[in-house]
Design a protein that fits this description.
By secondary structure, this protein is an alpha+beta fold. It is 49% helix and 18% strand. α2 packs antiparallel against α4. The chain binds zinc ion (ZN).
């Protein structure tokens, strides 16, 4: 999961170096309001935890897609493809739903 806020000047996403799971956790670590410089236009922005949004990280998305695609089954050989597809699909969905839940938990906090 990655956390970002949208720069008010250039509307680009600026990512936070934080592992906070909720906005409360973020406010405990970073304060009720903090300053971050936009990585795109260098504008110093005042950010509050409420303006921070979570999204699935690329690694989680890639893992979910790869495993969901049955790579596990292909590596296991022809006999394993059926089982692998099933397992891969389940694992992919599991990672995906986990990642989605993390994002939802943060965005609803
Ligand atoms: Zn900017």
């Amino acid at each position: 999961m990655k956390l970002f806020f949208t720069c008010p000047v250039c509307q680009k996403r600026v990512y936070l170096d934080s592992n906070a799971k909720t906005r409360l956790e973020l406010s405990i670590h970073w304060g009720e309001s903090f300053h971050l410089q936009c990585t795109n236009c260098n504008t110093p922005c005042q950010v509050t935890p409420n303006s921070v949004v979570a999204e699935k990280s690329t690694i989680q998305a890639v893992l979910a897609t790869t495993l969901g695609g049955g790579t596990v089954g292909i590596l296991a050989g022809p006999l394993g493809i059926g089982i692998g597809l099933l397992l891969g699909g389940l694992t992919g969905r599991y990672i995906d739903s986990n990642a989605r839940k993390e994002v939802q938990d943060f965005n609803n906090s």
